[in-house]
């Protein structure tokens, strides 16, 4: 891992409607831990999702009205949704129909996207590659793995920014104690 520092993080993948609203049915959102691998000047953030669980899944629909979104965050899972300052990267929203068709082509079970790293300079101009792996179980195509490849230099820049944010938050808490 970069710098031998311990890291904890989470990937959340969601299927949303054309208004960007979370769908409230089984298989439309899931969160999984991030595992980091550093190799060849790249840092890969990998999250695995269950392949055969009938309840815990991310169902890739072939609907024209659905979209795939994802967020990678450092730290603990925050159910209040206030983890914006822990954001590593966010997927550029992609069509579920396009993704479904891409992964079904030649039976490859893979579709790709791009994510932005907003806490890095030019983070929106230099998207990182994201690869989704799918699997079919009981006639349901589900996302089973997500991998975001971040250049090591960008990862270092994000890490430094993240550390500065944590220091600033600590100072703000200390100021409020007085």
Task: Offer a quick outline of the entry.
The protein has 178 residues and is an alpha+beta fold. The chain has helices at 96-104, 152-177, and strands spanning 9-17, 29-33, 35-39, 42-48, 66-74, 87-91, 94-95, 110-116, 128-137, 140-151.
Please characterize this protein's 3D structure.
This protein has 178 residues and is an alpha+beta fold. It has one domain. 20% of the residues lie in helices and 40% in strands. The chain has two helices and ten strands. Strands 1, 2, 3, 4, 5, 6, 7, 8, 9 and 10 form a ten-stranded antiparallel β-sheet that branches. The relative contact order is 0.19. The mean pLDDT is 88.
Question: What's the helix and strand layout?
Answer:
Blueprint: E1 9-17, E2 29-33, E3 35-39, E4 42-48, E5 66-74, E6 87-91, E7 94-95, H1 96-104, E8 110-116, E9 128-137, E10 140-151, H2 152-177
Antiparallel strand pairs: 1-2, 1-5, 3-4, 4-10, 5-6, 5-7, 6-8, 8-9, 9-10
